[in-house]
Task: inverse folding
């Protein structure tokens, strides 16, 4: 899908990521190509989705977009800046504008910290505000995502799964990011909890002009959530189109297989056929 550069908050071009591995017994090295010439543009203020089976390269792409890893080749432009050419100081500041919410808040939140400490920690890392200002910001964000101020002293394991994910969202919002990447953030939640969190995200997007990238294997959820969908297969983006068009008229063979599989609860994982015609 072609998104004009002026409309794109994030634009990745020609991304590849290769890992060198050693065989256990022989010691011979071999290369794993996790990303292969990936192009992806995310429209400012939109909700995009990245879908594909396990092992398609979604998590690797997310880590590269968030600069947790550097791609082997390619460019990443964010809000008019080439992120891969920034010096360390500028990169430190730029990272605050791209935040992630992970699948399992239990492992991503420090169990030894209180809820307020978890939310205010990014401000400490960025050396922003006084102690009182940071605590006030943490309480404000907790209430924004539906957590009472009275729970500020609770540890993360004292919350339910849905509340922990709300806490993770509050933490991600602390530095007022422009892009929020949600990596399978709702896959472990029951339907009612998931729907309430999605409604929260819609309200936050309207109020703060946020841009979302949802990484998911749940095409049913994506259909009612995303403006655009990118389909990933064997490290490549094989199709990227407006959601309604993609579901009504999928162009790539792999997309059609994925859509057919969602209607068959007992279906086995679809085979990824990258070279199929679009």
Result:
């Amino acid at each position: 899908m072609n998104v004009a550069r002026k409309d794109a908050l994030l634009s990745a071009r020609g991304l590849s990521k290769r890992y060198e591995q050693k065989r256990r017994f022989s010691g011979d090295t071999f290369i794993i190509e996790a990303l292969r010439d990936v192009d992806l543009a995310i429209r400012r203020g939109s909700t995009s989705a990245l879908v594909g089976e396990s092992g398609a390269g979604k998590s690797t792409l997310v880590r590269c977009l968030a600069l947790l890893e550097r791609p082997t080749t390619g460019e990443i432009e964010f809000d008019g800046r080439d992120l891969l050419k920034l010096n360390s100081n500028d990169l430190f500041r730029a990272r605050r504008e791209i935040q992630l919410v992970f699948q399992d808040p239990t492992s991503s939140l420090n169990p030894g910290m209180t809820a307020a400490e978890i939310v205010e920690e990014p401000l400490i890392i960025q050396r922003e505000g006084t102690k009182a200002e940071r605590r006030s910001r943490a309480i404000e964000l907790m209430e924004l995502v539906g957590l009472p101020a009275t729970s500020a002293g609770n540890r993360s394991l004292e919350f339910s799964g849905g509340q922990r994910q709300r806490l993770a969202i509050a933490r991600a919002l602390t530095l007022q990011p422009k892009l929020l990447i949600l990596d399978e953030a709702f896959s472990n939640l029951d339907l009612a909890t998931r729907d309430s969190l999605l409604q929260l995200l819609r309200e936050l997007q309207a109020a703060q002009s946020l841009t979302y990238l949802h990484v998911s294997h749940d095409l049913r959820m994506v259909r009612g959530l995303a403006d655009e969908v990118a389909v990933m297969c064997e490290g490549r983006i094989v199709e990227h189109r407006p959601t309604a068009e993609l579901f009504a008229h999928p162009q790539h063979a792999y997309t059609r297989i994925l859509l057919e599989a969602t209607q068959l609860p007992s279906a086995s994982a679809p085979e990824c056929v990258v070279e199929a015609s679009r």
Remarks:
- Residues 264-269 have pLDDT under 50 and may be disordered.
